[in-house]
Each structure stands twice: as structure tokens, then as C-alpha cells.
Specification:
The complex is a heterodimer of chains A (294) and B (339). Chain A is mostly helical. Helix content of chain A is 77%, strand content 0%. The longest helix of chain A has 33 residues, at 91-123. The radius of gyration of chain A is 20 Å and the shape is elongated. Chain B is 35% helix and 27% strand. Chain B has helices at 44-51, 74-77, 95-105, 110-123, 139-151, 169-182, 195-201, 219-224, 239-248, 275-288, 302-317, and strands at residues 3-14, 18-29, 33-37, 59-64, 67-68, 80-83, 157-161, 187-192, 204-209, 212-218, 230-236, 255-261, 264-269, 292-298. In chain B, strand 12 and strand 13 form a beta hairpin. In chain B, helix 3 (95-105) packs across helix 4 (110-123) and helix 4 (110-123) runs antiparallel to helix 5. Chain B is elongated, with a radius of gyration of 25 Å. Classes of the chains: A mainly alpha (294), B alpha/beta (339). At the A-B interface, helix 1 and helix 5 of A face helix 2 and helix 3 of B.
Chain lengths: 294, 339
């Protein structure tokens, strides 16, 4: 019951905040403004994937991370210690309830701003070239993006638990995570870089259940090879021996989604790629918060 | 004796450098009103936060009603109603929303919670402010809301940290009266550096200095430490008459007289002399000289002087302040200073 009370309190508080309200309005407006120019030109899979770009890369990425940073930093921490944590609620209960509320709000905004337009794009009779988007692919893509958003909130929580000041935590993430994401993208590591994942989403949208099933059976070989390749590229990038790929530029999203080779895209690998760091970030953040003096 | 709070060698050192609580042995009897007294920075608030599990001890242990304190010790906090100094509360909530949230955290069923929180808001005089966000509250209103919050679950132990800080005289009076009322049915710990508050409400007292407990015992024990043989006699007389009295009667047996100011005498009863006898002799003398007695009162604010005396003695003890008993694991001083 205490955890549920905190979840509901946080949920209501977040929806009452101007940040979340404005974010939702801006998300919908962004989609409404950017959709018409691609409506007649882009295929279904890249078009839906382009709607997810702001969440995975920029600018909504910043808001998602910021929502993760704020619960246990700055002046809020004092109110928290005096007002809530001196009452019969365990720290981990409070922390996890807070985290769950933030994840729920982020996923709600994402769903409200993207799902209706996705359905519109899928079922409308558009003059664009036809595409082979599958139900399985669409659901998988939403699950994967939801997982990445959960990961970003968890990363924000970890930074917020580590640094007591929100500004320090934000700088830590902006100057730490953003360059890392771009570096990982250079080697098309969709398992670790949301930018590459966004680029790989059209492939996932077109994936059918049976293909994935076959992919599953090949998991032990293909995945291990791909992971080994990805790891090797990352290590060589860090050592400075790899040559970055160069991107040409015409229309941003058309160029963006035509780049990269994601034929070896594996849903399992991507889920592990974001799921494991999510659990690690959340576990470490909880541990740091529980050991902190208030 | 059942103890509400018990700490053993409780120590808190911040960042390996600042000693906030130093080998503290505290025993608060059930049903007492315990005043935790000490100057600013003595470690009172840190001690309370250690009890609540808001901070982790560097060494030692603390128990509340036999349960070990800790970060996740919810069964301990279930029994405590905590009021912090100048409470910092979630500013975006209304008072009623905040109390409702706390009620749910305390697992109080809705049918009990709702009427209780409205009666508490009425009791602390915040019924007229239910439309206001907490962030618009004054210090006094926040304290009153904090009081309501600490009483919400009707806990057997109240821990109030400087409850009268920043309050106007009427609110201060209200708070002290409330503590007296509440103390009839529960244990109350009040941390403060305001001696008159302790004097009015506490039956037990602990004096902290630089993170250590330099005295712990009853209020009477503390006052007994003070040399009590001094009192002031106020006369309805001129300064010359008072001076003449002192000059002409230097040898009242066992009594030393001194002029305190224009119309009052400082009377010191010497060792071995009955205090009552000394007063009787002095009254006889005044009567003989036809001097009008206006008042007799104690020469000092007893609590304040006992407190200051404790602090001075502690400083004077120097290295003897080191508690050798703690090395052998036995309980440190209680009820008196180690001398």
C-alpha cells in the first residue's frame, strides 16, 4: 500500500506539472507538423520510425532523462526526507514506486503522441509506395522503444542518485551518454545506441513472427557472431583503429533510414542490450540511494 | 524499566572527518517526556535522524521499542511521529492531500483516515488553509502541519525536533500545552536548545555537547547538581537601608549577605547550615528592623544554571572526559557526570 500510494502521488504530481503537459502538447504538435511533408512520400515503416526519432534521439530524450534525474536530487530531497522517508516506507519501496510512476508517465506520453498517428499511417490510404509492415513487427517495435525509454529513465535515476544536484547529473548524462550514443551509432550497434536502433526500426517493422522464430533458432550462432562483431568494432573504435562511416545527406529521414545494414537485426539481442543495462542502472541507483545519508 | 529508545555507542562521522555523534549511550524510559538539550551543533538532530533511519550510523546501534533502527526499518518508523525543525514538506500538495498520502503510507484505512485528518487539521488550526498549497505556508503553519502529520497514526513515540523554533508566543504556548497533553499517554522526545521549554514540559533530560551525552537523568537529578543555597530577598526599602543592613549584620550565623542591587539582597547559606533556619533568622532580622519584605526567590534560573554548569564542568574535565568504561563495553554514564 505505501508503494502504491507513492506511485499514485507521483503519477498525479507529474501529470499536474507543466513540464509533462507541455511535453505532451509539443509531442503531438511535432508529429502533426512533421507528418504532412512525409505523408505522400515515405513508406509506412520508415514513416512510423521517424515519429519515434524524437524519443530515442532528440529532443524528447532530454526530457525523459530529466524526469529520471529529478526525484531524489536538490531541494526535493530535503522535502522527501522530512515529509516522506521519515514515515514507515522503506527507501527502496519509495525509489521503485517513483521510478515506476516516471516510466508510466513517459510511456503514456509516448503512447498518446505516437500510437494514434501510427494507426492512422497504417490504415490510411496513402499515395506512398506500399510497405510490408507486420503486426508482430509493429508491436515488437513499440515494446523495444518502450524498453529504451525505460532504460533512459533508469539512467537518469542512476545519475540523480549518484549526484545530489540535478544540474550535475544532467551534465553527467549529456556529456557522458550522448557522445557514447553517437560513437556506438557509428558502428550501427542498435543493441546499445538508440540512434542506431531508430535506424533499424523499419527492419523490425517488416519482420514477421516466422522470421523471428527462425532467427531464434539461429540465435546461438548468429547472435554470438554479431555480438562479437559489435564488441570488436567498439573496442577498435575506442583504440582509434576503425574508420567511421560517412553519411551523405538529402532529405534527413529518408537518408537516415536508408543507411546502415540491419539485416542481422535480432529482437532478443536488442532486448538484452537495453534490458540488462536498465536492470543494472536501476539496481545500482537503488543501492546508492539506500546507502545515502539524508 | 522499559525503554522506548536505547542506543549503544552510537557514532556518526561524516566523510571520515566530522564527528557529529560520539559514542552516544541514550536510554529513554517509556512514558517519559525526554528533553534532548544541547547547543547548536551538539548532534541532537543527527541523533534523531539516526533513530529514524534517515542516516546510517558509523558505529554502534539504536533501538526503538526493541526494534533495530535502519534505512528500511519501517516497523520502527510506524511507531514514531516525527516533527523536523522547520519542516520541509512537499510544496505542491494541499495540506489535506499531504496528510492523506501519509495516512496511506501508515496503512490507515480510508474510513479511519479521512475523519482523523480533518479533525487533526481542525486541532492544529489549519482548517481555513485547506485550499492553500503547502509552499505558501508560513513557518508556523508548516510546523502545525508537521505536528498534525506526526500525530496522524497515533504513534506511541513522538520525536519532535525544536518544535517551538520560529513560532510566535501563542503558537509556542499551544505547542507546549499540546506536548503536556500528549505526554499523558505516550513517550515524547523533544530536542531543543530552549531551556525554558525543557523546564516546562520535561521530566527527563539528556545534555549533549560536541556529539557526546554529558548528562542523562531526571530533571530533578539535573537541578540537584546545582548549588542551591542561594536566594534573593527583595525589600521595599531604599538602597541606603539595604546597605546598612548588610554592613551592620555581617555575622548572622551561617549566612553571608550581599547587596545585589538597590533594593535586594543576595543571600548565601553556608555549608552545614539549615536553609529553613537561615531563612527564619533572616526574616526575624528584617522584622526587627521594620523592613518590608517584597519577595523571596531562587537566585538563579535553575535549569539554565544547571545546564551551563554541566557545559563548564565538561570543558574543565579535559582529558578525563574520555570514557574508559566504553572500552570495556559497559554502559557509559547515566544520571550523572563521570568525575
Amino acid at each position: 500500500m505505501p508503494a502504491l500510494a507513492i506511485f499514485q502521488h507521483e503519477w498525479r504530481g507529474l501529470w499536474a506539472s507543466w513540464l509533462v503537459r507541455l511535453w505532451l502538447i509539443a509531442s503531438v504538435l511535432w508529429t502533426l507538423l512533421t507528418l504532412p511533408e512525409k505523408w505522400a512520400r515515405m513508406q509506412t515503416a520508415p514513416l512510423i520510425s521517424s515519429l519515434m526519432f524524437p524519443y530515442l534521439v532528440f529532443p524528447w530524450f532530454i526530457i525523459v532523462v530529466f524526469l529520471g534525474i529529478t526525484p531524489v536530487t536538490g531541494a526535493r530531497l530535503e522535502a522527501l526526507s522530512d515529509g516522506i522517508l521519515s514515515r514507515p516506507i522503506a527507501r527502496y519501496e519509495y525509489f521503485l514506486a517513483c521510478w515506476a510512476a516516471r516510466v508510466a508517465v513517459v510511456l503514456s506520453v509516448f503512447s498518446l503522441a505516437v500510437v494514434p498517428f501510427t494507426l492512422l499511417i497504417t490504415f490510411a490510404n496513402r499515395p506512398a509506395p506500399t510497405d510490408s509492415v507486420t503486426w508482430f513487427g509493429a508491436v515488437s517495435a513499440f515494446v523495444v522503444v518502450a524498453l529504451v525509454l525505460t532504460f533512459l529513465v533508469s539512467l537518469g535515476f542512476f545519475a540523480g542518485a549518484l549526484a545530489r544536484r540535478p544540474l550535475v547529473a544532467a551534465l553527467l548524462l549529456i556529456f557522458g551518454w550522448f557522445p557514447l550514443m553517437l560513437a556506438l551509432h557509428v558502428y550501427s550497434l542498435e543493441e546499445f545506441s538508440p540512434l542506431s536502433l531508430n535506424q533499424a526500426l523499419p527492419t523490425l517493422f517488416r519482420t514477421s513472427w516466422s522470421e523471428t522464430d527462425a532467427d531464434k533458432r539461429r540465435l546461438s550462432n548468429v547472435d554470438i557472431q554479431a555480438l562479437g562483431k559489435a564488441g570488436g568494432m567498439f573496442v577498435s573504435m575506442l583504440s582509434g583503429s576503425a574508420e567511421p562511416q560517412k553519411n551523405g545527406k538529402s532529405d534527413f529521414f529518408e537518408t537516415f533510414f536508408s543507411k546502415g545494414d540491419y539485416r542481422d537485426f535480432s529482437l532478443t539481442r536488442v532486448i538484452f542490450g537495453y534490458g540488462t543495462p536498465t536492470l543494472i542502472a536501476l539496481g545500482l541507483a537503488t543501492l546508492v540511494f539506500c546507502r545515502r545519508d539524508l | 524499566m522499559d525503554l522506548a529508545i536505547r542506543t549503544e555507542h552510537l557514532t556518526k562521522i561524516y566523510a571520515g572527518r566530522v564527528i557529529a555523534v560520539n559514542d552516544l549511550n541514550l536510554a529513554v524510559p517509556c512514558g517519559s517526556v525526554y528533553g534532548l538539550l544541547g547547543p547548536n551543533g551538539a548532534g541532537k538532530t543527527t541523533t534523531l535522524r539516526l533513530l529514524l533511519g534517515l542516516q546510517r550510523p558509523t558505529a554502534g546501534r539504536a533501538e526503538v521499542f526493541g526494534h533495530a533502527c535502519g534505512v528500511n526499518a519501517t516497523q520502527v518508523r510506524q511507531k514514531i511521529g516525527f516533527l523536523p525543525t522547520h519542516p520541509s514538506l512537499p510544496g505542491n500538495l494541499l495540506a489535506i492531500e499531504y496528510l492523506d498520502l501519509l495516512g496511506r503510507i501508515y496503512r490507515i484505512p480510508a474510513e479511519v483516515r479521512k475523519p482523523r485528518l480533518s479533525s487533526l487539521l481542525r486541532a492544529v488550526g489549519l482548517l481555513g488553509a485547506t485550499e492553500q498549497r503547502i509552499q505558501t505556508f508560513s513557518t508556523g503553519m508548516r510546523t502545525r502541519l508537521g505536528i498534525a502529520a506526526s500525530l496522524l497514526a497515533d504513534p506511541p513515540l513522538l520525536i519532535w525536533d525544536e518544535p517551538t523554533a520560529g513560532l510566535d508566543p501563542a503558537a509556542r504556548r499551544f505547542t507546549l500545552d499540546l506536548i503536556r497533553d500528549l505526554a499523558k499517554t505516550r513517550t515524547v522526545v523533544v530536542a531543543t536548545h530552549i531551556l525554558s521549554d525543557i523546564d516546562q514540559i520535561c521530566d527527563h533530560v539528556g545534555v549533549m555537547l560536541e556529539g557526546r551525552m554529558i548528562f542523562s537523568g531526571t530533571m530533578n537529578d539535573m537541578k540537584r547538581r546545582l548549588h542551591q543555597d542561594d536566594f534573593i530577598v527583595e525589600l521595599d526599602a531604599t538602597a541606603e537601608a539595604v546597605q546598612a543592613l548588610v554592613a551592620e549584620t555581617p555575622n548572622l550565623q551561617g549566612i553571608a549577605l550581599g547587596v545585589r542591587n538597590s533594593n535586594s539582597l543576595a543571600v548565601k547559606v553556608l555549608d552545614g547550615r539549615s536553609r529553613a533556619r537561615a531563612v527564619a533568622d533572616l526574616m526575624g532580622l528584617l522584622d526587627n528592623r521594620s523592613l518590608v519584605l517584597r519577595a523571596i526567590r531562587s537566585g538563579y534560573n535553575e535549569t539554565e544554571d544547571a545546564y551551563l554548569q554541566l557545559l563548564q564542568e565538561d570543558h574543565a574535565h579535559g582529558f578525563r572526559r574520555f570514557d574508559f568504561q566504553s572500552l570495556t563495553g559497559t554502559d557509559a554514564r547515566s544520571g550523572d557526570l563521570s568525575t
